[in-house]
Specification:
Strand content: 15-25%
Number of domains: 2
Mean pLDDT: 94
CATH architecture of the largest domain: 3-Layer(aba) Sandwich
Order of helices and strands: EHEHHEHEEEEHEHEHEHEEHHH
CATH class of the largest domain: Alpha Beta
CATH superfamily of the largest domain: Isopropylmalate Dehydrogenase
Structural class: alpha/beta
Shape: globular
Radius of gyration: 20 Å
Low-confidence stretches: none
Largest sheet: 10 strands, mixed
CATH topology of the largest domain: Isopropylmalate Dehydrogenase
Strand order of the largest sheet: 2-1-3-12-11-4-5-10-8-9
Length: 350
């Protein structure tokens, strides 16, 4: 069973693309995917007064995987509001205990012109960011009075160990190179992060090449020499910022997927883009990030590796053949709508 949470803005449009792809995969390979839709975010606030309703939580916990569109928008943008769409997403991650966020960034040479980065810097870029997702400053105690405010950033040894193990195991299957990003010259949490990372890699992954890099240097090198990286592991806030930066290498946030995993096979899958309310309902949204997230769902939660690889190949093929949505187009390109791009990818699956 798959829980489907369309959310806000372009969320319903790209989620529908994901549902269509799943339906086609099921038909071709003889699978049955039971997909059930539920509220989250602003739509849930408007509908039932809660950004993460109890029935949504129950449905997600009973599912094999969760597919999420996007949350947020101008209607709920007051940062002082008691209930905000983002609270639903943060709470869902905590309820599902998905602590490892995987964000792959692969550069398709056909999209180099759509990236603001010089094409020569994009050669051979194929990196994976593993972001700790349920700890750090986003989940720490928060205080505010008339004269000051504070946000507590804290990490337990066990939280660092488990995310480093996942990142190291993934790095061992790739190039054997792991870069841990922190701010150990300033932050005590980062000094603990570095200490624990050194120990876990030395004891459990002795053949791995481990490097530590300060977050400001990592931000610079992601633009200057992105091909240098293979697997990056980092804490919650640093990972949030670096992955949005890395998305620009691919030309658009609309191209990139993510998978949030925990100790079980159940995962949370979503494109990394936001709700983009300015283009909602116009057919301009790029469905590729969502469809690539479906591929991650097939691989990590359902164990359907062949189907995942076929889907990822279909995305690459349609891009190579010139299919573009507005966000990845340049002058002279044939621009497809959300539905047309989805149909083109499905056509490649035959």
């Amino acid at each position: 069973m798959i829980a489907c949470l369309p959310g806000d803005g372009i969320g319903p449009e790209v989620t529908e693309a994901g549902r269509q792809v799943l339906k086609h995969i099921a038909g071709r390979f003889g699978h049955r995917f039971d997909i059930h839709e539920h509220l989250i975010g602003g739509a849930a606030i408007d509908g039932v007064g809660d950004p993460l309703p109890a029935d949504t939580i129950s449905a997600c916990l009973e599912s094999d995987a969760v597919l999420l569109g996007a949350v947020g928008g101008p209607a709920w943008s007051d940062p002082n509001a008691a209930k905000r769409p983002e609270q639903g997403l943060l709470a869902l991650r905590a309820k599902l205990e998905v602590f490892a966020n995987l964000r792959p960034v692969q550069i398709l040479k056909e999209l180099s012109a759509a990236s603001p980065i010089k094409p020569d810097r994009l050669l051979n870029v194929d990196l994976l960011v593993v972001r700790e997702l349920t700890g750090g400053i986003y989940f720490g105690e928060k205080t505010r009075d008339g004269a000051s405010a504070s946000d507590l950033c804290s990490y337990k040894v066990s939280e660092i160990e488990r995310i480093v193990r996942i990142a190291a195991a993934l790095a061992a299957k790739r190039s054997g190179k792991l870069c841990s990003v922190d701010k150990a010259n300033v932050l005590e949490t980062s000094r603990l992060w570095r200490e624990v990372t050194n120990r876990v890699v030395a004891e459990e992954f002795p053949g791995l090449q481990l490097e530590h890099m300060l977050v400001d240097a990592a931000a610079m090198h992601l633009i200057n020499k992105p091909a240098y990286f293979d697997v990056i592991v980092t804490e919650n806030m640093f990972g949030d910022i670096l992955t949005d930066e890395a998305s620009m290498l691919a030309g658009s946030m609309g191209m990139l997927p993510s998978a949030s995993l925990g100790e079980t096979n159940r995962g949370l899958y979503e494109p990394i883009h936001g709700s983009a309310p300015d283009i909602a309902g116009k057919g301009l949204a790029n469905p590729c990030g969502m469809i690539a997230s479906v591929a991650l769902l097939l691989r990590h939660s359902l164990g359907l590796t062949t189907e995942a690889e076929l889907l990822e190949a279909a995305i690459r093929t349609v891009i190579a053949e010139g299919a573009r949505t507005a966000d990845i187009s340049v002058a002279g390109d044939r621009v497809l709508s959300t539905r047309e791009m989805t149909a083109a990818i499905i056509q490649q699956l035959h």
